Each structure stands twice: as C-alpha cells, then as structure tokens.
Amino acid sequence: MKKQEIVTFFKSLRDHICTEFESLEKSKRFERESWDHGHKGGGEISLLRGDVFEKAAVNFSEIHGEMFPTDEAKGPFFATGVSLITHMQNPYAPTVHMNVRYIETKDTFWFGGGFDLTPMGFPFEEDTQFFHATAKKSLDPFGLKLYPEFYQNAKEYFYIKHREKERGVGGIFFDHYCTGNSDKDFAMVKNVGLKFSEAIMPIYQKRCFIPYTKEEKDLQQQLRAHYVEFNLVYDRGTKFGFNSGGNTKAILCSMPPTATW
Q1: Nearest to 230 by CA among 95, 113, 126
Q2: Rounded CA separation 64/79 (Å)
Q3: Catalytic hit among 37, 87, 97, 132
Q4: Average pLDDT, whole number, for the chain?
Q5: Which residue of 7, 94, 111, 164 has the fewest CB atoms within a 10 Å radius of its CB?
Q6: pTM above 0.90?
Q7: pLDDT at 260
Q8: Other Cβ atoms within 10 Å of 183 Cβ, number
Q9: Residue 93 to residue 205: CA distance in whole angstroms
Q10: Contact present, 233 and 26 (Cβ < 8 Å)
Q11: Cα(196)–Cα(116) distance, rounded to whole angstroms?
Q12: Which CATH number fits domain 3-254: 3.40.50.300, 3.40.1500.10, 3.30.750.24, 3.30.1240.10?
C-alpha cells in the first residue's frame, strides 16, 4: 500500500459519486474549485446546486502539515480523504454524509470514515433497514464483528448532547483503524466507499420526486438546524479542518444552504 495508491482511489471515488448524483439531475452538474494548502498540497471542492440536490458537496483533500492539529498525535503529518454531504430539495429525501480518510504521521498511520443517514422529518423504516444492510454488506468480508462495532460507534458519535437525540438513523463510523495489515485495512475502506452509492441511490430514486407541502419543507428546515449544531459543536472533521489550516469554504460545505431556528 502506497500513499499515491490511496490518493488515486479517493479521487476516482469522488468522480464516481459525483456521476451517480448527477444522474438524478436533468441538466445541473458539479462545479469544481481547487484550493492550495498553506504548507503543501490542497484539495478540490465539487459543489452541485440543482433541482434535486439543493446542495451537494463532494470534496477531496490531500495535505501535509508541520504539526498535527489535535492531541491525537504530534509532529508532521499527511492527510487525504473524501468527504461529502447532501441537502435535498425534497424533505422526504434524507440528508446523507460519507467520509473516508487516511492519516499518516512520523510514527504511525490509520484510516477513518463511514457513512450515516439523516431523515429531515420523514424517516422510512424500510430505507433505514436497507441503508444499514448495505453498510453491513460492505464490512462483513473483513470480519463479522466490524459492523456491530462501527454501528455502535456511529450511534455514540452522531449524538447531539444538548438536544438529547441522535443526529439521524445512524450508519457506520470508525477512526484510528489500523490492524497491522495495511493492505487489508485499505481494502475495507475501499469497499465502504464503493458501497456508499449502493446504500443511498435507491433511496433517492424513491424519495426525491414525492410531492410535498410548504409545511413539510418548513419541518425540514427546522431539522437542518440541528444538523448545523452538530457539525459546528461536535464534529471532529470540522475541528481538524480548521486547526490544520484547511480551506474554510470546503470545511463549511457541510452546512445546509438554509435552515430555521
């Protein structure tokens, strides 16, 4: 396993997901914007504002830094990953988040990531079961203990303490994942990334074109506010991005275009 192999896969995953999302739009396409990191490297924002996706961001980054930005490690580091978020025009279509990342320091390396689903007022049990079944399918080839562990991680991590509720209906989440077999670990992360589209696209094909009312849109806006609160108060990726000198626009792509308090 080499860093360039990981970077190449993450870029191809970004392209694949963008193509999948664009298939739901009649004419709108992602617009891309590159940015440079202050030390070395940078990234690319892929942003879509369309008729189905009120806002979708599928971002890639590859950065080097002199000092690790949190107390998880020390010294120089390398970090690369793909992070995405969707905010849908139709309130019946849930928000979805996915992230896969690789971090390397002088002494160690690890993978992190996962994906989770957040209905904005209109949860469907069949969608939740399908989403989780696909997540499980992505992990089972690498050990039957992974899905229960990563499921519980997500349940605990995506919890809005001040509202005493989970952010959505869960998913999978892992961090500092390193078994000692880097090739197997990378294969697992690749499978998670590739299965993501299988988990969300059938849901969007069912839910994005359901008629809705202004009152239902208003409820979506209220729940979007809870999403904002989690991302600004608790999300590790937001903190890591700011503290590592990342691109502010890319970091805040996770914010919905509108929300109501």
Answers
A1: 95
A2: 7
A3: 97
A4: 95
A5: 164
A6: yes
A7: 96
A8: 9
A9: 9
A10: no
A11: 10
A12: 3.40.1500.10
Q: How many residues does the chain have?
A: 261
Is residue 157 over pLDDT 70?
yes
- pLDDT (0 to 100) of residue 1: 61
Task: Give catalytic status of residue 39 as yes or no.
Answer: no
Residue 100, Cα to own-chain centre: how many angstroms? 7
Amino acid at 259: A
* One-letter identity of residue 42: G
Sheet order of strands, 53-65 included: 31-36, 40-48, 53-65, 77-88, 95-105, 109-118, 170-177
* 65 pLDDT more than 90: no
Cα-trace Rg, the chain: 18
pLDDT digits (tens, 9 = 90+) for 158-203: 999 999 999 999 999 999 999 999 999 999 999 999 999 999 999 9
